[in-house]
């Protein structure tokens, strides 16, 4: 929760109250890791995305380190770095496109994450040339140079409350809001993957669900590893 890129993550109260209810009913059985994976599944369904099953049985880690969170993909990473960070976790270029596109079809981003892209992308204070010239003034108006960096704007401009393919078209057309989404169109491999989904909701939805399940298996602790936390914000 203290890592710079994750300061705005919300909803921990919902995870914690779910955990408290479960601990009342059946103490020490359901991990926080499973609650988070199931909450993501339900959130996707609630915004009219695909319904999918999530395997359970994860145990919680006994470590929580800011230094590890700092290694997560960064909004200003190049496409090469984004691909490498995903690859290091066993996730392909396809997973990168599906997970970024599928997740950022909903939600908002703080202007903080747009500062470099809008006002310091090139020497002399230029903007990211990948931004459509018709979109640039709109972004700048929402996130002015000395404005409040905590103001939040939709990640999927024009369709941020529903799970759909609109985000992919936005990225193709230079209307991505955050730089890491725009970078998906920089590289031939990720561009081709993204283009291939623009016309097919069924395959995007199904492949997104598969990628979510795959991501949910990374580094899973089972058996006698880790623990079942009593509260999700602290190790036992
Ligand atoms: C490719 C690497 C990624 C980068 C660099 C990235 C970066 C970001 C940033 C900067 C924000 C705005 C956060 C804020 O203002 O507090 C954001 C929002 C969000 N991201 Fe990502 N993200 C990535 C991949 C993912 C993935 C794989 C998922 C989940 C599958 C995801 C889910 C979300 C969601 C749901 C939001 C909206 C949060 C809200 O509305 O409060 N992101 N992301």
TrEMBL record:
UniProt binding sites for heme b: 104
GO biological process: hydrogen peroxide catabolic process; response to oxidative stress
Cofactor annotation: Ca(2+); heme b
Disulfide topology: 32-232, 111-143
Start and end residues of each Plant heme peroxidase family profile domain: 1-236
Ligand binding (substrate): 73
Pfam families: peroxidase
CDD domains for this protein: secretory_peroxidase (cd00693)
Single annotated GO MF: metal ion binding
Keywords from the UniProt entry: Calcium, Disulfide bond, Heme, Hydrogen peroxide, Iron, Metal-binding, Oxidoreductase, Peroxidase, Secreted, Signal
UniProt catalytic activity: 2 a phenolic donor + H2O2 = 2 a phenolic radical donor + 2 H2O
This enzyme's EC code(s): 1.11.1.7
Gene3D superfamilies for this protein: 1.10.520.10, Peroxidase, domain 2
Keyword Signal set for record: yes
InterPro entries: Haem_peroxidase, Haem_peroxidase_sf, Peroxidase_pln, Secretory_peroxidase
Cofactor comment: Binds 2 calcium ions per subunit.
Binding site for Ca(2+): 105, 156, 164
UniProt similarity note: Belongs to the peroxidase family.
Protein name: peroxidase
């Amino acid at each position: 929760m203290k890592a710079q890129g994750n300061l705005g993550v919300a909803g921990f109260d919902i995870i914690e109250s779910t955990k408290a209810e479960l601990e009342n009913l059946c103490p020490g059985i359901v991990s926080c890791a499973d609650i988070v994976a199931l909450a993501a599944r339900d959130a996707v369904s609630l915004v009219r995305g695909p319904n999918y099953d999530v395997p359970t049985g994860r145990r919680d880690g006994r470590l929580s380190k800011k230094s590890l969170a700092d290694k997560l993909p960064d909004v200003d990473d190049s496409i090469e770095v984004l691909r490498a960070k995903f690859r290091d976790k066993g996730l392909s270029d396809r997973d990168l496109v599906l997970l970024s596109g599928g997740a950022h079809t909903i939600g908002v981003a703080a202007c903080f994450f747009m500062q470099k892209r809008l006002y310091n992308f090139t020497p002399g204070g230029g903007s990211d040339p990948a931004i459509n010239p018709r979109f640039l003034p709109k972004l700048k108006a929402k996130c002015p140079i000395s404005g409040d960096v905590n103001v939040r704007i939709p990640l999927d401009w024009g369709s941020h409350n529903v799970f759909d393919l609109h985000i992919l078209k936005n990225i193709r057309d230079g209307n991505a809001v955050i730089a890491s989404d725009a970078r998906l169109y920089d590289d031939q491999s990720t561009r081709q993957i993204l283009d291939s989904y623009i016309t097919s909701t069924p395959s995007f939805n199904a492949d997104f669900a598969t990628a979510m399940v795959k991501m949910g298996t990374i580094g899973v602790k089972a058996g006698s590893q880790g623990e079942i936390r009593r509260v999700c914000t602290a190790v036992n």
